[in-house]
């Protein structure tokens, strides 16, 4: 099951999702998220236009999920008092 299907399953359990890609997120992945979630009102996907909502997301979310490709993002989310889940995706640097 791919990550988008897993996120939809989580959303169907009653959660609203906010997805914020990083500068390192490849364009093909952004397009997959846009296509998959464009008609789902309970999933907000930031399209990297306008002010980055990252710190507002850290403040307002109940649960945080972050990919393992950034030490700074991992450090920032674990500094909150919220549950954190790490998504281990393929790729990245050595």
TL;DR of this structure?
With 94 residues, the protein is of the alpha/beta class. It has one domain (3-87): Cobalt-precorrin-4 Transmethylase, domain 1 (3-Layer(aba) Sandwich).
What does this protein structure show overall?
The protein is α/β, with parallel strands linked by helices and 94 residues long. The chain has a single domain (3-87), classed as Cobalt-precorrin-4 Transmethylase, domain 1. Helices cover 38% and strands 15% of the residues. It is built from 4 helices and 4 strands; from the N terminus they run αβαβαβαβ. The strands form 2 sheets. It has a two-stranded parallel sheet with strand order 1-2. A two-stranded parallel sheet has the order 3-4. Helix 2 (27-37) links the parallel strand 1 and strand 2. The protein is globular, with a radius of gyration of 13 Å. The two termini are 26 Å apart.
Structural descriptors:
Cobalt-precorrin-4 Transmethylase, domain 1, alpha/beta, 94 residues, 4 helices, two-stranded parallel ribbon, two-stranded parallel sheet
Backbone CA Rg: 13 Å
Strand content: 5-15%
Text of the CATH class:
Alpha Beta
Report the order of strands and helices.
HEHEHEHE
- Sheet/helix structural class: alpha/beta
Set down the secondary structure blueprint:
Elements: H1 3-12, E1 17-19, H2 27-37, E2 43-45, H3 54-60, E3 64-67, H4 71-78, E4 84-87
Parallel strand pairs: 1-2, 3-4
